[in-house]
């Protein structure tokens, strides 16, 4: 996670350039690449060994993190505002899920283990390719891919929006419970390849026209944020493996 000088998390909602950073990890080495920057390697095992946990903020919730050092700070600061040290890269410093923010569990059955480390709500998001295909038939002057929605999993073989009716998803031997539909924000309007915002706020504007939350009570709380994809939490044991082309079962 990248934080500002006050240790508050930042995202591509405000800093679209973050979408053009490509991370890979091998053993304990995190490598970050960007078309206009030199590659950066961060040894996460070394970070854990040499750093003491500090506190950062995610949606106002304090979370323990390790600071990934001056070189990573300088790299992100140059990328985001050409400064020397206004931003820092941090690494989650706990084996437990971070606390839920107060508003998270108002309508849904989140448990204390569902938030994970640093995501907005849950660590697992699934997109139905058929739903993306249907959205593209409704769009003018733009086409989107699952990457606009940043999922962990892309499913093929279902009908569009079938996921609205699912309660559980099994991928390989891993069982997930669907906590809620994923409501979408302005980040969907940023091209994931270039970091450029769509001038007509698409595909968000079109999604708002036909994918609103139907429950009136939840709608009053969530506003006019449209649904696309599903938020899931792991219900089978930890440590499982998910592979490309795994069969997917739903209930």
UniProtKB/TrEMBL annotation:
InterPro entries: MoCF_Sase_C, MOCOS_middle. Residues 97-251 form the MOSC domain. PROSITE patterns: MOSC (PS51340). It holds the Pfam family MOSC. GO terms for molecular function: catalytic activity; molybdenum ion binding; pyridoxal phosphate binding. PANTHER family: MITOCHONDRIAL AMIDOXIME REDUCING COMPONENT 1, MOLYBDOPTERIN COFACTOR SULFURASE MOSC. This is MOSC domain-containing protein. It comes from Manduca sexta (Tobacco hawkmoth). The lineage of its organism: Eukaryota, Metazoa, Ecdysozoa, Arthropoda, Hexapoda.
